Amino acid sequence: MIAATLAYDKRLDKEILTLIKSSKIDKKLNLSIKDITFYNFLADKILMICVIRHGVPYSLFDKIQNFTPFTENYWADLLDVSTKTLQRYRQDDKSFRPIQSEKIIEMAEVTKIGLEVFGDIDKLKLWLNTPSFALGKIKPIELLKDSYGKELVIGELTRINYGIFV
């Protein structure tokens, strides 16, 4: 499982690097390309903002979608589009609007933190789909549809990581 995750990270690294170079964000922010990985990207809020404003291309979304525990139907609902629209985005390798791009990046961020806490995508998926007492007996996945809910979920993941259980 770890080898597969690391191999997938390499594809995410390559895709984010390609986007940053092709959009010239690296020049705008005076970034050193050799230091950019997907995980570094998720730790750099300014870089994330630039990518969100540029728009996440379907090619990056596809890799993020495969990195996360979320289904295509969940993504369609989250991005407020139909699954058919997602298929058209794939065919045209279209970029998402900034509001959708922000959701995509947020879900990548939640997944990264969740994997750091649970170490396994299946355990993260189980936690996301189990009502949480600390989150008002709501399933964490239900809170991810808006930014305030996402912050609550990240806060709870952080508390779990530090062994603080409410």
UniProtKB/TrEMBL annotation:
Boundaries of every Antitoxin Xre/MbcA/ParS-like toxin-binding domain copy: 116-163
Gene Ontology MF annotations: DNA binding
Domain Antitoxin Xre-like helix-turn-helix: 52-108
Record protein name field: Antitoxin
Lineage: Bacteria, Pseudomonadati, Bacteroidota, Chitinophagia, Chitinophagales
